[in-house]
């Protein structure tokens, strides 16, 4: 019997936003927090997704729910349990919603039966917990099929889709057809971009862009020498004499040391601390195009032989993300491609699997890498939003990213980053990265503007305000018949 498990979240005070937001925005946030607390009195706000680690949803939920709890809302997080066959089907749906065939496997009656069976098992436990009037926010394709049974017991159900495709095709339509029976029971659907909304959800859809927690371990300030010390301990940089300890501050305020090392594929010599670093941090997913980053960097090395820079392609340990069965295959393909490159190029490229046993330690390593990199890249072929772009922008890093999905809502080309219009063109990618490595003044200006843009648009304060709107809409529609 499969059943979901709960991830327990401690409340975080909203007062930490006060010195960051300024008087007007801080006052508005307090008012919205009071509204949320009053509206949710006696009710629970459930969030349900398919993994507690790895990927943007698992990154966002802990802090969003922590601040909701800090505002006086009983916010809780459940992670459904699935089988390998179930996650194969949902990964296929994930690709289809991006307009991609993925592995080309079917989405027919057999897959429907697998999907429904797993969700039926999980629903039995959910029905013990969820009460009439509770608010349930289901996340992504893995959970959509839970909507009917939860709506039937009187819960106010919304479904949030964190992925999508700007130009729908047959694959996108196939995914929506598969998900339609579940989504029919959702009172509200939430998307990251208006372009992602399918016709069947148009009358009950709102757009809420994702955001980051600027106070999280991944985004906390790190001195440059500490960043280098963390990366040296992890194996990405050469150690420096007299370097400080590789330390960071945990979410509870206690100091901690990075103890684990990364699993590296390279030629044995870590990068020198002074060598400019180009880095991409993403799940090992073909839509993140790590192979394309490698080939784009190879093109840069060929076209600009005198340019000094190394490349790091980093992602989570492939055994650590339960709902992503393709991770190991994707990584192995990148490793095979790396082995085909000339020795001189392989010396300048590291493929890195970051430890995930301690999620805050992992966050500290990612933070150090993003802060140390001279250029952060996100060469996705499709992208729901791209929180790794937001994180790098917050750290005032110049970013080169593909002009796809929600990345386009973050980067203003030439103002706070650079966009590659054709993600499949290694030459365009190479030119963009090379322009920033050759012009540190431009890189610095773009990075400074990027930080301010995130502060204005993509922090938790804005996200919490949007949550109040979701509650208002769900309560207003509670008595309406479902479509």
TrEMBL record:
Trehalose synthase N-terminal domain sequence ranges: 47-198
UniProtKB keywords: Carbohydrate metabolism, Glucose metabolism, Glycosyltransferase, Transferase
GO biological process terms on file: glucose metabolic process
InterPro entries in alphabetical order: Glyco_trans_1, Trehalose_Metab_GTase, TreT_GT1
Subunit structure: Homodimer.
The UniProt record lists the keyword rRNA-binding: no
Name of the molecule in the record: Glycosyltransferase
PANTHER family noted in UniProt: SYNTHASE (CCG-9), PUTATIVE (AFU_ORTHOLOGUE AFUA_3G12100)-RELATED (PTHR47779:SF1)
Database matches in Pfam families: Glycos_transf_1 (PF00534), TreT_GT1 (PF21269)
Alphabetized GO MF terms: glycosyltransferase activity
Stated family: Belongs to the glycosyltransferase group 1 family. Glycosyltransferase 4 subfamily.
Residues in Glycosyl transferase family domain copies: 367-451
Source organism superkingdom: Bacteria
């Amino acid at each position: 019997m499969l059943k979901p498990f709960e991830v327990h979240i401690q409340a975080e005070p909203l007062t930490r936003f006060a010195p960051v937001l300024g008087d007007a925005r801080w006052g508005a946030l307090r008012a919205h927090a009071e509204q949320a607390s009053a509206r949710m009195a006696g009710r629970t706000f459930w969030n349900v997704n398919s993994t507690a680690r790895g990927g943007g949803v698992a990154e966002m939920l802990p802090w969003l729910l922590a601040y909701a709890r800090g505002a006086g809302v009983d916010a809780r997080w459940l992670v459904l349990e699935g089988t390998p066959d179930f996650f194969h089907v949902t990964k296929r749906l994930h690709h289809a919603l991006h307009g991609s065939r993925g592995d080309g496997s079917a989405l027919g009656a057999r897959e429907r039966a697998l999907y429904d069976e797993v969700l039926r098992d999980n629903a039995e436990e959910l029905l013990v917990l969820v009460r009439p009037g509770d608010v349930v926010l289901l996340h992504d394709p893995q959970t959509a099929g839970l909507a009917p049974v939860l709506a039937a017991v009187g819960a106010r159900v919304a479904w949030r889709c964190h992925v999508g495709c700007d130009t729908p095709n047959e694959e996108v339509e196939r995914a929506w057809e598969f998900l339609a029976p579940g989504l029919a029971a959702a009172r509200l659907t939430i998307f990251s971009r208006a372009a992602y909304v399918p016709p069947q959800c148009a009358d009950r859809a709102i757009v809420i862009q994702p955001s980051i927690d600027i106070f999280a371990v991944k985004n906390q300030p790190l001195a440059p020498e500490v960043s280098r010390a963390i990366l040296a301990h992890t194996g990405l940089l050469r150690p420096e004499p007299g370097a400080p300890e590789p330390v960071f501050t945990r979410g509870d305020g206690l100091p901690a040391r990075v103890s684990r090392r990364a699993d590296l594929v390279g030629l044995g010599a870590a990068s020198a601390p002074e060598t400019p670093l180009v880095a991409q941090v993403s799940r090992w997913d073909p839509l993140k195009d790590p192979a394309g980053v490698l080939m784009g960097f190879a093109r840069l090395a060929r076209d600009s032989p005198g340019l000094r820079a190394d490349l790091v392609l980093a992602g989570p340990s492939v055994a650590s993300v339960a709902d992503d069965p393709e991770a190991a295959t994707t990584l192995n393909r990148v490793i095979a491609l790396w082995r085909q490159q000339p020795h001189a190029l392989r010396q300048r490229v590291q493929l890195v699997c970051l430890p995930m046993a301690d999620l805050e330690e992992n966050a500290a390593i990612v933070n150090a890498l993003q802060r140390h990199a001279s250029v952060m890249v996100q060469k996705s072929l499709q992208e729901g939003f791209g929180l790794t772009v937001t994180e790098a922008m917050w750290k005032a890093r110049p970013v080169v990213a593909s002009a796809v999905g929600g990345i386009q809502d973050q980067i203003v080309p030439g103002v706070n980053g650079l966009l590659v219009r054709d993600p499949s063109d290694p030459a365009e990618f190479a030119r963009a990265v090379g322009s920033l490595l050759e012009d540190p003044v431009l890189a610095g200006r773009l990075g400074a503007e990027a930080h301010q843009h995130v502060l204005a648009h993509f922090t938790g304060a804005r996200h919490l305000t949007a949550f109040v709107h979701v509650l208002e809409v769900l309560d207003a529609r509670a008595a309406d018949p479902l479509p």
